[in-house]
Amino acid sequence: KITNSLAADVVLNNTANYFTGPTIAQGTSGTWFATGSVTVLDATAGASAFLIKLWDWTTVIDSARVDVPSNSHGVISLSGYLASPAGNIRISVRDATNAVGKIIFNASSNSKDSTLSAIRIA
Question: Which 8-state DSSP code applies to residue 105?
C-alpha cells in the first residue's frame, strides 16, 4: 500500500486548468486500486463548481463535480482500478468558477484532509 497526503494547500488560480493534489509514485506495472479524497475551499462571496479527477495523466479512473457554497469547504472521494498506469496516480482539481479556490491539506487540524492511497492487487 502506498499513501500520500498534501503537505500544503494548492491554489487553484486558473479556471481553465487542473491542479495536482495528492499523488503517488506506484510504477507502471500491475493492477492498482486507488482511493482518495480532497477537501476544497471556495474562498469567494459566490459559489464555486469544482471538477475533480483521479487519473494517471492519461486515463481518468473516476471523476466528480462538487458545488461549494461561498466561503465553504467541500469534500469529494474518488476510487477505482487501473492496470499498467501510464504515470503517477493523482487527484487533480479544477475550480471552474473562480480563480481563488484551494485544495486544502489541514482544515481538520489532522493534516490528512487531501489524501490518496493505492494498493497493488495484481
Answer: S
